[in-house]
Amino acid sequence: MNDVVPLLEPREGIPPVIADARALADVVAAFAGGSGPVAVDAERASGYRYGGRAYLVQLRRAGAGTALIDPIACPDLSELDAAVGPAEVVLHAASQDLPCLAEVGFRPRHMFDTELAGRLLGYERVGLGTMVETVLGLRLEKGHSAADWSTRPLPEDWLRYAALDVEVLVELRDVLHAELSESGKLGWAIQEFESVLHAPAPEPRNDPWRRTSGIHKVRNARALAVVRELWTMRDQIARDGDIAPGRVLPDGAIVAAALEAPRTRKALTEITAFTARSARRHINDWLAAIGRARSLPDSELPVPSAPGDGPPPANRWADRDPVAAKRLAAARAVVAALADEHRMPTENLLQPDAVRRLTWQPPSEIDDLTVADRLRSLGAREWQVELTAHPIAKALVRLETKG
């Protein structure tokens, strides 16, 4: 669209923040009496607070207007959830917001994800602001997306931003719904929405400290123990103080300490990252953690890499199993060609992990049915199986024949 109109103010102005039971009851009644889909968004304090809880929930529905709810003051939205009932809930990047909404008792039964719809339709950029501008010709200001939403009271310009995030979400949904229908992708989208909506909560990671950024620089078990002890201490401090771990101590500081193994307070504070006020406040804790790592017997040191339940990194396949590497290349080529044909990212056509697992350990007898069954067991949706099982099986059989 050539003429882009700035979206500066909510149609009914900035609503008051709902922060008590009586005001929440009025919102529940209003949304129960509204009609059509319900636009929903949530603001978190990622990078500021320890967890992923919501610090503001925004909703909009025809006949009800917009509501801004403080879930810290009103931590139970189950009555609002019941009032909305089976109505379709419209979210953007739903997988980010569904967990924190569930924590306050809001669990959609039906959902439309405008970001996921945009991906399936082949939009190159699917951020909410870009989608609203591209599809509706309206410009959203996105300056507060990374703000500390745990701030109280919330500034007026933040509340304006939050209200505008749901202002035209249903209108965006309507246009995308029509495009999905016209392109024959609506059924695919519905399966994707249901998959996101009913995805199980992720299992806690084994050895989460191994995800420390820069850990690849740490080469020996004793230094890895330092990473583990510092990470664990940082996590405890962050959890107790409800602070994002990176604000207590950055990953780079953990890795630097593991590499240098300082033995004294002076040596530790010579590492630049430990001179920050938040790090200095816990300097004795860091020294104690390093001391624990240094005193561990060899039998309790971490192994260099944790065993996984999946295939090795793809860049090692050529050395580990050249035949599997050829299978992976063939399957990836098929998925890339199909994704290009249907105008969507390859990862939305078929999850890369499913492609890797299928080609690392293929069925003993490869044909359309066995590949389809394997893809289903790896979480592929039915529309993905229908599009990819036959051409992938054909490509793998061709490789076997050549071999």
Automatic annotation (TrEMBL):
Signal peptide interval: none
MF (Gene Ontology): 3'-5' exonuclease activity; nucleic acid binding; nucleotide binding; ribonuclease D activity
PROSITE patterns: HRDC
UniProt entry keywords in alphabetical sequence: Hydrolase
Iron keyword on record: no
Single GO biological process annotation from the record: nucleobase-containing compound metabolic process
Record SMART domains: 35EXOc, HRDC
HRDC domain span: 220-300
Entry EC no(s): 3.1.13.5
Protein's name in the database: Ribonuclease D
